[in-house]
């Protein structure tokens, strides 16, 4: 079985229209939760570049140090009252959980509480104060330009959500939503929204077609049309996001972008949850990822990216509630994919597809010296047969470091059966679904399998630093362009 690759892009902004990214939420309700260094090693191996934590766990933040991974930390709901009632408490929270970790840990956002209006309404009166106090502490530390402050909302605060043009936030929350949106506007932040078409579908009692919830193609006559705007909606996700945009416009806020902080589909459910299946979870997340990364935006804001965090990294067997609540993860606790995403043709984005056609290539933007060092390692200690790269052989042309490295990286990747970490090479390699073969130079296809490899030497890496950052390739000085590498045995929990 192929390995899951998550290649995550840049931050979203309604104003700058940068590319959207896909991130993941990291829940910890597992009976055998991997330790933070193992979690980060999985993130690194899968090239996950954006994560959201439900707290600001010190060990996790230390493990994320020096990885470049963009991190959203959270003020848990049980700390919200203290932060919202005291500027000093908020300042101490920022000092302990943010200032102590930056810049080594790339914290880019703080989520203050989670779905406060619907799950902790008694704390709603202090929500905006909490955001302002946290932001003031960031200003005092000169971090306000780097780190945005917001709070995730359940989409259930949107009433009369279809057609989207007539949607509005529950007016009973206007005393909170109006100053909140003005705060987001004034600080250049974004509205955090949790979007779960699964629940909308389940609660519709058959009104919402399953294909419409799963992003599956619909014939034009089956598309939902907003009679007021004549906009066509082909999926529930877009309709909910646009309903949030129209709800903000109802409060005269039109320039606050949206980031979806949670979305996904459960892969298993109880008997009364027949649509919580592996196939549906696969379809939803595969289509969601493709939709977000295509930067298509929504019908109301075409081309405006809607970055989204998938709920979630791991299946959480300790989550309360029905069976579906325990099965939203992309991976099990051992780092094995729960299912293989359908992403054929997505290029270097999430090249984990059921056709098993994945390849490991050199990054175009990588440092040529590091690419050369990794090439030397692959053709030396990595035991790749690089004879096809010799002059006169099929893969000699084009005679460039990147072209030769791509051949060697791919050969090593398949030699190691596409195990996690075998297409990394200190960040100069990445996975693609585009076949790099050319002329008579034929690359190995991804015919490996998804199995644990105990004690196998993976891609060259070094031990982490004291910060807890995961293993990575260590390049020493070299005088003959021959790589001096240290090879780490990856923990079986990460394979």
From TrEMBL:
List the Gene3D superfamilies hit by this protein, alphabetically. 1.20.58.1040, Glycosidases
What's its membrane topology?
Answer: Lipid-anchor; GPI-anchor
X8 domain residues are 358-443
Among the GO molecular function terms of this UniProt record, one is:
glucan endo-1,3-beta-D-glucosidase activity
Q: Which domain of life is it from?
A: Eukaryota
Subcellular locations according to the entry: Cell membrane
The keyword Transmembrane helix belongs to this UniProt entry's keyword annotation: yes
In the UniProt record, the signal sequence range is 1-17
Instruction: List membrane-spanning regions.
Output: 473-494
Annotated EC = 3.2.1.39
Show the GO cellular component annotation of the record: plasma membrane; plasmodesma; side of membrane
- Per its UniProt record, what InterPro entries does this chain match? GH (IPR017853), Glyco_hydro_17 (IPR000490), Glyco_hydro_17_plant (IPR044965), X8 (IPR012946)
Q: What is its main location?
A: membrane
Record keywords, A-Z: Cell membrane, Disulfide bond, Glycoprotein, Glycosidase, GPI-anchor, Hydrolase, Lipoprotein, Membrane, Plant defense, Signal, Transmembrane, Transmembrane helix
Keyword flag Membrane: yes
The record's PROSITE patterns line, in alphabetical order, gives: GLYCOSYL_HYDROL_F17 (PS00587)
Which GO biological process annotations does it have?
carbohydrate metabolic process; defense response
Q: Which reaction does it catalyse?
A: Hydrolysis of (1->3)-beta-D-glucosidic linkages in (1->3)-beta-D-glucans
Stated family: Belongs to the glycosyl hydrolase 17 family.
Recorded protein name is glucan endo-1,3-beta-D-glucosidase
* Lineage, opening ranks: Eukaryota, Viridiplantae, Streptophyta, Embryophyta, Tracheophyta
């Amino acid at each position: 079985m192929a390995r899951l690759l998550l290649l995550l892009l840049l931050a979203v902004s309604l104003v700058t229209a940068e590319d959207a990214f896909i991130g993941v939420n990291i829940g910890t309700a597992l009976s055998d939760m991997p330790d933070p260094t193992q979690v980060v090693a999985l993130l690194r191996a899968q090239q996950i570049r954006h994560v959201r934590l439900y707290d600001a766990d010190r060990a996790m933040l230390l493990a994320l140090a020096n990885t470049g991974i963009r991190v959203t930390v959270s003020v848990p709901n049980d700390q919200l009252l203290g932060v919202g009632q005291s500027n000093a408490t908020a300042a101490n929270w920022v000092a302990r959980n943010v200032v102590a970790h930056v810049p080594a840990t790339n914290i880019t956002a703080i989520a203050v509480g989670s779905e406060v209006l619907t799950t902790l309404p008694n704390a709603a009166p202090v929500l905006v104060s909490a955001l302002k106090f946290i932001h003031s502490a960031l200003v005092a530390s000169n971090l306000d330009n780097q780190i945005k402050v917001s709070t995730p909302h359940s989409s259930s605060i949107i009433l009369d959500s279809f057609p989207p043009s007539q949607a509005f936030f529950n007016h009973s929350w206007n005393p909170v939503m109006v100053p909140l949106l003005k705060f987001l506007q004034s600080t250049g932040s974004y509205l955090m929204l949790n979007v779960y078409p699964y629940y909308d579908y389940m609660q519709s009692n058959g009104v919402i077609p399953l294909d419409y919830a799963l992003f599956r193609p619909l014939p034009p006559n089956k598309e939902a049309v907003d009679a007021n705007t004549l906009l066509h909606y082909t999926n529930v996700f877009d309709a909910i996001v646009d309903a949030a945009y129209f709800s903000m416009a109802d409060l005269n806020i039109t320039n606050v972008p949206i980031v979806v902080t949670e979305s996904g589909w459960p892969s298993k459910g109880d008997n009364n949850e027949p649509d919580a299946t592996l196939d549906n979870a696969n379809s939803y997340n595969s289509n969601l990822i493709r939709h977000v990364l295509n930067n298509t935006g929504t019908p109301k804001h075409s081309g405006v990216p809607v970055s989204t965090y998938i709920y979630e990294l791991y299946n959480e067997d300790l989550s309360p509630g029905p069976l579906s609540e325990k099965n939203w993860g992309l991976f099990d606790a051992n780092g094995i994919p729960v299912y293989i995403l359908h992403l054929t043709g997505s290029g270097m984005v999430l090249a984990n597809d059921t056709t098993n056609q994945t390849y490991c290539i050199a990054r175009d933007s990588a440092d040529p010296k590091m690419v050369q060092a990794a090439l030397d390692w692959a053709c030396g200690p990595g035991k790749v047969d690089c004879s096809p790269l010799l002059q006169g052989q099929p893969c000699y042309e084009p005679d460039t470091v990147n072209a030769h490295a791509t051949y060697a990286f791919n050969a090593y990747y398949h030699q190691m059966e596409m195990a996690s970490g075998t297409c990394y090479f200190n960040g100069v390699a990445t996975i693609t679904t585009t076949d790099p073969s050319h002329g008579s130079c034929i690359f190995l296809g991804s015919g490996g399998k998804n199995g644990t490899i105990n004690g196998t030497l993976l891609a060259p890496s070094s031990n982490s630093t004291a910060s807890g950052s995961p293993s990575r390739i260590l390049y020493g000085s070299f005088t003959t362009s021959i790589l001096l590498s240290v090879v780490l045995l990856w923990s079986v929990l990460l394979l």
